[in-house]
Amino acid sequence: MSETLSRIPTGMRYYTGSEARLRRAIGNTLISIFDGWSYEELTTPTVDYYSLFEQGMGRSQAHHAFRFSDTDGRMLAIRPDVTSLVARAAATLFSERKRPLRFCYVAPVFRQKPRSHAEWRRESTQIGCELIGSNSSAADMEILAIITEVLECLDLDRNCAITLNDVDVFNGIAEELDLHPEARNEMRELVDTRNAVDLERFLAGHSSAADPQAFAQLIQLTGKRKTLSDARRLITNPRSQSALDRLERLWCVIESLQLADRFEIDLGDVSQLDYYTGLTFKIYVSGAGARVGSGGRYDGLTASFGRAEQAVGFVLDLDALTEVLMGRPYGSDLMQGPVEESPLTAGNLSDLFLAARGKRALGQRVVINPVR
Amino acid sequence: MTQLTIAIAKGRLQAGALDLLAGAGLSFSAETLASRRLAVTDESGNYRLIFMKPADVPVYVEHGIADCGIVGRDILLESEADVLQPLSLSLGACRLVVATRNDAPINQLGMLRVATKYPRIAARHFGARGVAVDLIELSGSVELASVLGLADCIVDLVETGKTLQENGLVIVEVVADSAARLVVNRSSYQMKADAVGQFIRSLKDALRRQANVD
């Protein structure tokens, strides 16, 4: 075959055999868990207007989408994100429905450029939940409980870390410093990469207040309740304080459910500040070099579709989960594949398919092998 | 204890990095270090060092094959790798500069031909001031490009400035300061939090002791 036909574009792949079965099984397991928490499955358009994603994800993320123009000249994109589509449906199709709305989805998303160098895929399947129209800590906890159940069902709960933060811890400090947007972004990057040395230098140039200096020390710590109490002692501005209060309330519930070993407080997680408005979290499992999922509260998103309401959600990367579970106990049953039936053969096609249909009616597996 | 894999950039930073690791309590027999093995384990068994070209360090760390790495900031700026940088190490201090021939004034209004091993850094630097550049990517002896007229100027790493001087080049401006960094994989930072935290603390102590001796 010529190279142009045999070659697979960068970042695309096939799934076959045991890997395809495992991937399907993980998807089914997750969807049935979501169903158990009363989340309704939503299938969204694969192609939609680029402006929708630009509004939903921000330009810096949306411009990674594959784009082309419609017959009327409007710019279209192949879905780079599902949340924008769900948020729009909530504001339009479901505007009359009683709140809160609970939606889940499994859908491939596409990017021209992968998120990072380690993430080579340009097509990846997102599987997630969105809870729209509720601002209670019960909603935040509901989302975390679902993720916990997912990790338990996949037998990953002893090798995982779900890191929690609230973007207002950072926002409170940035507000106090009164930074212009460029400096705020520089500070965000230093915090995000845990660059305490440069952060202290940066902060020293902007403020002599105690809060920011204390913050530089905190970003290097991930931990449990102690991180929170340290932070509360060191950071005193009201906005950060109320964020820490919210985190503490969640942490108390997590402790009472005896789930504290799966969670960490990570005040340095500030990767998507412009998108999230409260709780944020990331999901790590051992065996994966990058996070396998993330989420948080995004109260600002639905407003851009004409109806402001509170929302929280998460997304898991089905491909990353499949990669981690290949060869693990959870996956091994599926590795084997179903037992091979002996091939069905018969002298003529009528007999052959009569026998085949009979076996299928009993739910048996058949493999047709007509004699030449 | 969880074993940490640490990627070390070979060459300029290697000896200093090994000194620093020794100061942080990692011990390797002289025989191990003299060998040409690409992966060695320290005597406690808690650390495995892997040696590679500097540009490969962020690649291994970003993929999580190495949990941590020691590499120059120049390499990190060029790779744009998504890794954590919790420590700046007082090793291999140098500068990324724009340099040109003594007698050649730079005309930034037209198009500037820039030779470099750091095409992304150069593109960002000139992009930020709206200068059109023709980037010529080279893999070594970048000074030659300016001396022989392949390029109007070069963007390169300078430690003492001696090579530039000997080739009749002068520094026009400093793009960034560079020194060695400790980098950590995002997932390892969470999943091996205790081991990584311990490693960072012992490196900090070693740096403090080094500074006191100096």
Written description of the protein model:
- The complex is a heterodimer of chains A (372) and B (214).
- Chain A has helices spanning 3-6, 17-36, 50-57, 59-62, 83-91, 137-153, 167-177, 181-192, 196-206, 210-218, 225-234, 238-256, 318-325, 329-336, 349-361; strands spanning 40-41, 47-49, 67-69, 75-78, 101-110, 123-132, 160-166, 222-223, 263-266, 279-285, 293-297, 311-317.
- Chain A is of the alpha+beta class and 372 residues long.
- Among the domains of chain A are: 9-135 and 299-337, Bira Bifunctional Protein, Domain 2 (BirA Bifunctional Protein, domain 2), CATH 3.30.930.10; 342-372, no CATH class.
- With 214 residues, chain B is α/β, with parallel strands linked by helices.
- Chain B is built from 9 helices and 11 strands.
- The model of chain B has no long low-confidence stretch (mean pLDDT 91).
- The interface between A and B is medium-sized, with 25 and 25 residues.
Could you say which structural class the secondary elements and strand pairing of chain A correspond to?
Answer: alpha+beta
Question: Which fold name is given in CATH as the topology of the domain at 9-135 and 299-337 in chain A?
Answer: BirA Bifunctional Protein, domain 2
The coarse silhouette of chain B is: elongated
Strand content of chain A: 15-25%
Instruction: State the CATH architecture of the domain at 9-135 and 299-337 in chain A.
Output: 2-Layer Sandwich
Write a brief caption for the model.
The complex is a heterodimer of chains A (372) and B (214). Helices cover 44% and strands 17% of the residues of chain A. With 372 residues, chain A is of the alpha+beta class.
Task: Please outline the helices and strands.
The complex is a heterodimer of chains A (372) and B (214).
Chain A lengths: L2 H4 L10 H20 L3 E2 L5 E3 H8 L1 H4 L4 E3 L5 E4 L4 H9 L9 E10 L12 E10 L4 H17 L6 E7 H11 L3 H12 L3 H11 L3 H9 L3 E2 L1 H10 L3 H19 L6 E4 L12 E7 L7 E5 L13 E7 H8 L3 H8 L12 H13 L11
Parallel strand pairs in A: 1-5, 7-9
Antiparallel strand pairs in A: 2-4, 3-4, 5-6, 6-12, 7-10, 8-9, 10-11, 11-12
Helix pairs in contact in A: 2-6, 2-13, 2-14, 3-5, 7-12, 9-10, 10-11, 11-12
Chain B lengths: L3 E6 L4 H10 L6 H5 L4 E3 L5 E6 L4 H6 L5 E5 H7 L4 E5 L5 E8 L9 E6 L2 H9 L4 E6 L5 H5 L5 E6 L3 H5 L2 E10 L1 E5 L1 H6 L1 H21 L1
Parallel strand pairs in B: 1-3, 1-4, 7-8, 7-9
Antiparallel strand pairs in B: 2-3, 4-11, 5-11, 6-9, 6-10
